[in-house]
Amino acid sequence: MHPFYFAVWGPGKIVFKLYFRWEVYGVEHIPLQGGGLIVSNHASFLDPVLLGTSLPRDIHYLARKSLFRNKLFDYILRSVNAVPVDRDGNGMAGLKAILERLQKGCVVNLFPEGTRTPDGNLQKARSGVGLAVIKSKVPVIPTRIFGSFESYGKNSSFPKPKKIIIKYGPPINFDALREEAKTCPKERLKEIYQEIADQIMDKIASLSPQRDADSH
Length: 216
What we know:
Elements: H1 3-19, E1 23-25, E2 36-40, H2 47-54, E3 61-64, H3 71-79, E4 82-85, H4 91-103, E5 107-110, H5 128-135, E6 140-146, H6 148-152, E7 165-168, H7 175-181, H8 186-206
Helix pairs in contact: 1-2, 4-5, 5-8
């Protein structure tokens, strides 16, 4: 970890435990080495920090390029593994950044919904996450964050001390669709991207806030 990332990671775990009474389940599904995609629901600005501090290894994020204009913010964001992308422009730049990090053996966090939920409910996933899955060969770990909307949703001015639970699920197997995507027509390929995105959201929706019987 970058020293600044570690400086946030350590105290963050303590703060979240005391303030949010957080619980984290399924960490054993995250690879300790090699690349991985953490695909999570998105309900709050807290979500990236919650995910980043809940794991024993650092993870990488995408952030709007405009946030890096300030030199101080640029240093902080890069120190916590944020990758600058033009979300309103060329989407391929974001995909390239994701794949580069995955090829280096990094774990990358993506929010399939694309933006924070306005009402706390899960939204439909965008097909871009399906493209990222097809272009990579890493494990895809469905993840659900409970309570972050109630704590710090879109209409909140300051995080409330609501209980937060993070649940990591078993990796989703996309081998068959990855194989089909190698030779299928372009129209079918677009369908595969959305099919993967929909499967991811279904898995996220199926996760419960309780510890699984076989979890460590």
